[in-house]
Each structure stands twice: as C-alpha cells, then as structure tokens.
Amino acid sequence: MVRRVVTGVIAIANAVKLADVDVITAYPIRPYTGVMNELARMVADGEFDAEYVIADCEHSQFEMAKHASMAGARVFTGSAGIGFAYAYEPIVVTASDRAPVVAMLGDRTLDDPGCFGVEHTDALADRDLGWIMFFAENAQEALDMTLMAYRVAEDARVLLPALVCCDGHFITHVYRPIDMPESEQVKAFLPPYNRQYLLDPDRPVSIAPQVGSSGEHAYEFRRQMVEAMVAARRIISEASEDFGKIFGRKYPPFVEEYMVQGADAVLIILGNMSMNAREAARQLRAKGERVGVVRIRTYRPFPDVELQKVLVSAGAVGVVDCNFSYGSPLGGGIVCNDVRSALYGFPRAPPVVDFFAGLGGREVTVEDFIGMFRILLTAARTRKAEKNVYWIGLRE
Amino acid sequence: MMGVSLEVKSISDVPREEYYASGHRTCAGCGPAIMCKLAAKAAGPRTVILGATGCMYVANTSYYLTPWVVPWMHTQLGAGGSAGAGTAAAFRALMRKRKLRGEKINVIALCGDGATADIGMNALSGGMLSGQDFLYICYDNQSYANTGIQASGTTPWGAWTTFTPPGRASPTGNVRLNKNLARLVATGHPSVEYVATASIAFPFDFMTKVREGLAVDGPAFIQVQTPCPKGWRFDSSRTIEVGRLSVETGSWFLYEVVKGDLRLTYRPRELLPVAEYVRAQGRFAHLSETDIETVQKRVDEACREIGLAPSSER
Amino acid sequence: MSYGLKKPLASWKEMPPGVVVPAVPPGGKNAWYKTGNWRIQRPVVDKKKCTKCRICWLYCPDSAIQYELLEADLEYCKGCGICSRECPAKAITMVSEMKFRPGE
Question: Yes or no: is domain B4-307 CATH 3.30.465.60?
Fold first, then answer.
C-alpha cells in the first residue's frame, strides 16, 4: 500500500489509470481541469495507454464519450458547473442509451454570475435523468468512488452512466494523504468492460432507432430505466462489500451515520462540508447535547430506506442545502425536498428544517453548524419547526 | 490517391449486396436514401454508421425498426463530428491495446446539411481537428427537410422554405448567401487530407470518393448533394435528373481537395444556363427573370474561381 | 401480400436494454415495414427493350429493383418513377395502379 499526498483531481486521475480506461475526452473548465491535465501527463509519459481526445466543447466531450462507450471502450470524462450544463443534451441521451460512461463533476456554482466556488446544483439539476450519483467527501473517497463507479455502471444488470461529484476546491484542490490502491487489487475488483450490445460489425445492431410517437415504445423504456436504478441499489451494496474486502476500506454504501444514536437533532449533508458538521457534533455531544450527522454518499439511487431508518426516531432533522431550486415547494432546496418526500407519511416523522449554506463557495464554519444544531434542538423540544427555511450567514 | 482496385468506374464495380436495405419511411424518390444506399455499398460490411437526427434517422429507423444491415447508432443533431471522433477513438484505443482484433472498422458519420452547417458546426470542426480516423458525409438537401423544409446554412439564395416564404414584403424567399461547407473544412483544417463534393447523380464518382475518404488514415469530409422532391418541389421521378442539372449548370461542382490541392473530378464540357436548373424546381418558381440573372452572375463567378468557363462566356 | 406488417409490441422485460434492435440480416429487407402500399403507379419493364444495364437497380432509393430479375419488388416499390426516368433504353413505363386488380 502506497501513501501519497495528492489533491482530489490527482487522486481521480490515478483511479482512471488503475481502471485502464481506453478513451478520455477532455475540455477545460475550473475546478475539474486538473484531472485532465494529470491524465494528459500520464498518457504522454506512457504511464498507461488511452486515446486522449481534446474536445471542442462540453457537448462534444460528452457526445464523444457516449459513442466511445458504445463502441466498447471504457471511457472517462468530466466537467463542472455551467460546462456540465452545456453538455445537457448528451447527458440525457447517455443515460437512455445505457452507455456506462463515468464522469467526474467538480461541483461549481452555475453561471451567471461566474463564480468558481462550490455549489451542488450543477449535479442535482440533472438528478432525474438516470445517472448514478456519488458525492465524495475527500480525495480518498473521490478515488474510491471512481473505481466503484466503473464497477456499478458497467454491470450488465445496471448499464447506467455514473457521476462522481467532488466539491470544487475543497476536494479538487486540497491536498490530503491517501492510500493508493495496487493495480492487482483493482484488477480483482473491476472486470473488463464488455456488454451484449455494442457497435460491432460481427454482431450488428441498430442503437436508438426512432420510436412510435403514440407512446408505443418509449413508455416501456422508462420502466426499464427505473428497473436499472433498482438493480443499481443492489449492485452498489454488493460492490461496496467487495470493495471493503479487496481494498480494506469499508464504506457504508448509501449514507454515513455519525453520532446518530439517540440523537435529538440530526443534520443531513453532502460533500466536504460534513467535516465541520462532524466537529460541531463532537463539541455539542461533549456538552451533553444529543446531535448527529448523516452524510449522503449515493444520491441516485436515492437512499430513502436508509434515511427513513435513521431519521424517523430523530427529534428534528435539518438538511444542509448547497444548491438552489427557485420557486420550489416550501422554498426548500433540492436535498431538503427529497428528504421531506422520503419521510412523508411516517406517523411520527420529525419536523424537517432547511438550511441554505455555503452557496457560491462560502465557507460554512463549525460555529455555523453549531447554530444549525441549536435551531434543531429547539425544534426537537417544541416538536415543530419555527421556520421551514434558514439562510445561514446571509447578509440581510 | 488510392489504388485502381478501389475505384468504382461502372456498374460491374458496384457491390451487389445491400447494406441499407428496403423498408424505410423516406419519401418516394428520396435523394438522401439513394445516398445511404450508395455510401453503404461503397463502404462494405466492416462499417459502423453514426446517424444524426434528420430524415435519415426519423424516416429510416422508424417505429423501433431499422433498414440497416451494418451496425448503426443514432447521434444528436449537432453531434455528428463528435460521434465519429468518439467511435473512431474507441476503435483506435481498443485495437492498439489488443482488446479488439481484426481489420480496420470504417466509421462514417452521416449527417444532413442543417446538422452540419448550423448546429453541428462546432462538432464538425472539432471532429476534423481531432485527427481521429472517420469519414464525415454531409448529405445536402439544402434544408431542414425532416421538420418540413426550413432554411439551413446551405439553403441557396432565392429558395422557398417555410422560414423563408416569398411574400409581398419579402419577395425573394431566402436572402442568406449559403455557406460553402466543403471549402470551409478544406481551407481551415490542415489535418484533413481528403475533402470532396459529390452528387448522387454521379454515383460512381460519389462511391469512389467514399472509398477514398475511408482510405485516408484520419478525418475526411464529403458534402454530397442529394436533391429532395419534397423540399425542392419537383416530381419524384426527377431526383437524379435535377441532380444532374445542378452539376451541368455549374450550380454544384464535383471536386476533391487532396492534401490541400483542389482538383475537379468532373468538368462539364459546356455549362448549361442556370435557368434550366432553377426552373425545374418549384422552390424557385417565384423568382423573376432579374433574380435568375443574379443567380447566373453568382454561378459564373464561382465557375471562374474554380476554373470552369461560365455558360454565358461560350 | 401483407403490407405495413408491424412488429408485435413486447413487454418492458423482453425489450433489450438501451433501445437496441437487431440489424437486418445480410441479403434481407426490413420485413416489418413494407412500403408497397404507398404506390399509385408501378414500373412495368419491357424485357425486349431492356439492355440489362442495371441503372434502374443502382438508382432505386428503396432497393426495390432486383439485380437478376430486373423487376420491382412490389412489396417495397413506392412508385417514384426514377427507374423509368433514368432507363437509357426507355424500357420502363410507369402504369397507374388503377389498371391492376388487387393482388396483382
């Protein structure tokens, strides 16, 4: 086992190398470009063999990746923020074509205004389309999730593209010591990419013909996609087990629970911010307050069952939203509304409070999280939320 | 230039097998359908086709069916260049890494003029820049035909389309001077060793060019004119005739640009007046004699530029 | 002759993943989409005038003219008339479908 100090993007580049990716499609946009720089260096130095294709824009980048995947290549691509938005057309079609593309997203605030800071809306705005979505917390997870992504996406029972979401700057650019896997371990974990239907002159097929416009076929394809997500749940659990055995790092596949035992107040969170949330929880627990943190690691398929289990007995639930959803029900952010939906109908469901925090890349401090917990503890005691939505640290 | 054995000189050189079979929803007399058939024959069975949205998608692989014998995949309207480059990159990587064996696989991106000149310009240029080994065939029926004939980047001046209907306030119809796609690709993309224009009315010339484009190890581009009875408004039996008139009047040239050198592959002995071509199509029926003179002047200029004696200078 | 024979609709479990359909086998045609019933006229070949140049076979957009028989496959021929127009020997005449009885 080799220990190295790397940034998130370098970690992911190493995962791509270890996975023996065949085609990489590159286009620059902050804050994910570093992964493509590192891959370019690796390929140019002969560290591994891949076709490195420079695209003319994100739309082309993701289109190239989709077609390379359907021609039988293991592919890697990526983007960030508004660039990911430019690729919306191929993002939609990659999922419905069932092309197991793996892409890295350096989560970044959507334009306008231009802002390099982290926000999750770039990923979450596309949550309905059929991509598997993992949210990493640090460079190690980013590497590990990339390997998981190939394993799950390429599984014949799944065949869905996968997105590895990494907070811009906080994961992409921050150095951390990580365990670099050995290539034998990766070979044991990742079977080679192969699938039944490919662009192959020996087994010719027509992929994605036009279908009837009276719903003769599309409806059934929608149902197939849902089934693929259901299968993904199973395969994510299986693969996670395998991962733990082969690499020695055991991750809970869907949600990571921290100090949730008997918690009166629980915060739901995504990404790197959870580090400060956990520190706040430690400080409050030391003072006798019963608080906990649940970090969502897999956002699609959504971990409704796991969240129900841990949250239903909480006194109050807070959701940290680093995203926006203008005009949404109850003014809630995307994650909050998904969590509320998952808890709806439970007879003793706790009040759910939404905390917008960290938008535009603003730092969310331990004090901010302590403040959120205090609001939740009050809500737990009074058994109702005073407000549905709080904007933490907003200049009023 | 490639060997004599690949050249298609006559019917006896044309493969008998169909790789684009009967049973598609194209209009009776469809020019692009003839193009698909000829291109597929020229390329042979070890070929993968990427088809952008358009008539050759919606009217071909319709109702969850397909007329294609070779592997085929849909791509987005503006993604032809990316689809070709991505597929070619995969085959190149897999063959180099010995994950795929056998003879080279031809990769052809088949896209309409709207898909190429407008929405797909980005991807076309990026694909040509990529250096990947694929052939981009733009089938040019000079409109967005599948959505009911709207003006595209190659719609000629004076043409009726639903977006450029001639009317009292605006009697000419289309006033935009169409892009010259083949020259655009040839002039600005040094890594493209083969660019050609073709016509389905000159089928052997077209099929030979398809093979030349495929023989090049890198990106190649062919713009093939494919008259459209619906959009150009002529009887369905006259598709080839109108295509022939286009070339014989100097309204369309047949040339290839090999490593930057342009050479006509067909020189009409005597160019016919452009009026014969224009008056054969209902989409130009509203044009006045003055308008046709304007068209003739532009055609004459283009002829001089490419080295053909204009019809008016006989 | 059964025109417009549509492929039976399968359940979502039977349909292959990723909107995939098998290609037409070599030598075959798209059996599920016969376009012969579009016609209002059909090509009639005068075998005495025909020189077997096969220009009609080459140009047919629907590959309906058969190379050996030099007749139109009536299950697919749309009656566009290109074969008639292009025949150098003027051996093909387009005849109205009204002149034929059903099944002919």
Answer: no
